[in-house]
Amino acid sequence: MKNKHKYLRKNYYRRIALFLIPFLFAQACNKIKDDNIPVSEGMAEVYIEVKDDGYADEIAVEKPLNPSAKVKLSQGYTLAAELLPVPGNIGSKGNGSICKMTSRYLAQGSSENLKYKVVLFDKEGVFLSENNFSSKQAIEANAFPLPANAPYTLIVYAVDGTSKLPEITFTGGKTLASSQLLFDKTVDLTYFRKDLFVSNTARQVIHASLKHKFSALITTIDASQLGHPIKALTSSFNPDYGKVSFNLATGEIHRSGTASNTAIVFPALNTIAVTSVPTVINAEGAATFTISNFEAGPLKFKAVVGFDNFKIKPGVLYKLKLTLVSTDDRYLMYKDQAAARINGQIWMLGNVGSNATAQSLEMRNNDYVQLENILFQHGDYFQIGNSNAVANKIITRQNITDWIKTDNTSIWSTGTEEKPVKSKNDPCPTGYRVPTNTEFKALMANTLITNYGDIKSDPKNFNAGRLLVSKAKNEIKLFFPLQGLLGIESGEKDAPCAIASRGLLGYYWTSTLSNGDKVKVNWIRFSGNDHARFESVNLTDLSKDALNIRCIAE
After folding, report:
1. Would the N or C end of the chain have less CB density within 10 A of its end CB?
2. Nearest C-alpha neighbor of 480 from the set 399, 391, 548
3. For residue 192, what is the DSSP state?
4. 249 and 243 in contact (C-beta within 8 Å)?
5. Contact, 278 vs 217, CB < 8 A?
6. What is d(CA 128, CA 83) in angstroms, rounded to the nearest whole number?
7. 3-class DSSP state of 221
8. Closest CA to 310 of 68, 84, 66, 79
9. Quick one: three-class SS letters along 82-94?
10. How far apart, in whole angstroms, are the C-alpha atoms of residue 103 and residue 90?
């Protein structure tokens, strides 16, 4: 029995052993009070396997009920909100990483705190017995008798470990039809009912899969585009009905009293993105989320900002994702990289492999200012499809032996031109990817392009570049160094590689593939003598050349 107990505890299952044998009947009856179970010569052995079966399946949720919404804030920012159901049956799948975030028991600290009650009624619905159990109890303590060869109704309900297990209230006689639970506050209630026939001939296992009866909400707020940690945040969800009567026979919820706001609790602030603890909500239908106090960098407000177009259903776990979005051009630290936002696009300030980190920006009056040093923007050289650089930023001439050959048509992106998806070969840092032709065209359409530095071809010219200045805010600029092209000098396999056109031309990979008779890869070429233009070459004909990469935010 000890080994069985260890096994069951390890798998978060709680089996209530109903050892129903005649010679133990008298002793067991002495342990159970207010019990109407009759004496019978035929007794059965029944086990109940109790588990949290998660929230309602996502398929049952009408997604169109919750379209995305936006609220305008100050300083050119908007707050975008999206309320979506989390896929169901999380508890039964046993996915540890998900359960820690969403399971009601683990959200309270430990599944060891589970409290539950087992209630039995006979075939006429007459109350027979009720017993409280805890997952901390030994299995041996959970024995009680039950006559075999008879039908019963089994009810199991549970609450999280921090709440008191509610007692049954009978509105009339002690029957299933008159049984209910009364709550003065919202708790995370799960419930199971089964009509069963207990046989005298076989050992039976009843799987009590507990279903959540109230909704739960996990809220995240992402201020990455703002570039400042969230220092203050007060928010709530409405409505929440504290008083509840729960029908044990049908599992129906009857709400009463006045609806109130439920505070959303964020246990840790002072980070770019914050996530709340799961919030249990007793409501159905129209719902409103509001923020009454917020502070992150220069963005502060105390007036109520609300979203009132949400609808929720009981028993569903929701994730409310809020994102601060801005088309206001500015410098920022995004995903730990120094960046500039121009017309909504976020671009790294330097090429991959550069030193354009925090040292490229300086905070002045609660806003970032770029330190205009083009040396910060120089990066390494990358061959198409190679996530590792083949040469560093200061190379002029050397032998390179680690060229690769690829015919992979998803070199930089596994998506499309309209919806690019970062591939495993993409060398950009977390949160960024190689841009498409379309994205480069949008950048050029929203900037004025001028020369910077001494435009001339020289292997040691590190001071030349093209300067892209925001049309909306001319103090926001992107430098694209004219680093030239790294390639084999004579076309021979073992010939040295050298830089060509440094200080005059700049070549930057894109993730765009052109399809024709042969797949073509693309790049954009910046020149000190004319405007930027796009070029391409057959993937299979591509020589051993290495270009630079400037990343865009995903």
Report:
1. N
2. 548
3. E
4. no
5. yes
6. 44
7. strand
8. 66
9. EEEECCCCHHHHC
10. 7
CB neighbours (10 Å) of residue 277? Answer: 15
The total of other beta-carbon atoms located within 10 Å of residue 483's CB is 29
Largest CA distance in the chain: 103
- Cβ neighbours of residue 424 under 8 Å, at least 6 residues apart? 387
- pLDDT number for residue 57: 55
Residue-wise pLDDT tens digits, 401-422? 666 666 565 678 888 898 899 9
Q: What are phi and psi of 442, to 5 degrees?
A: -65, -40
Tokens of 199: 């046989």
Beta bridge partners of 147: 43
Distance (Å) of CA 386 to CA 406, 429, 480: 9, 14, 21
Cα angle, residue 253 at apex, residues 248 and 259 outer, rounded to 5°: 145
**Token pair 């910077």 in the structure block, residue:** 452
Q: Identify the three-state secondary structure at position 452.
A: strand
- Yes or no: say if 331 and 476 are a contact pair by the CB < 8 Å rule: yes
The SS3 assignment for 141 reads helix
Q: Using alpha carbons only, what angle is made at residue 348 by residues 347 and 354, rounded to the nearest 5 degrees?
A: 155
Q: How far apart are CA 469 and CA 222, in angstroms?
A: 28
Contact 417, 505 (CB under 8 A): no
**SS3 of 111, please?**
helix
Q: What pLDDT shows up at residue 466?
A: 93
User: In angstroms, rounded to a whole number, what is the distance separating the alpha carbons of residues 331 and 346?
Assistant: 9
What is residue 52's predicted lDDT score, i.e. its pLDDT? 65
- Which residues contact residue 48 at a Cβ distance below 8 angstroms, ignoring those fewer than 6 apart? 15, 16, 18, 118, 154, 156, 205, 206, 208
What does each C-alpha distance from 186 to 190, 240, 253, 548 come to in angstroms?
Answer: 12, 8, 12, 57
Query: What pLDDT, on the 0 to 100 scale, is given for residue 135?
Result: 65
Residue 85 token pair:
């159901």
Q: Is 98 helix (H, G, I), strand (E, B) or coil?
A: helix
Q: Which residues of the chain have pLDDT under 50?
A: 1-40, 58-65, 89-111, 138-141, 143
Those residues whose C-beta lies under 8 Å from the C-beta of residue 402, and which sit 6 or more positions away, are 388, 390
Task: Provide the 10 A C-beta neighbour count for residue 509.
Answer: 24
Q: Which two tokens stand for residue 445?
A: 């359409």
Q: Cis ω on the peptide bond leading into residue 239 (within 30° of 0)?
A: yes
Q: Check if the beta carbon of residue 277 is closer than 8 Å to that of residue 237.
A: no
Tokens of 232: 């203050």
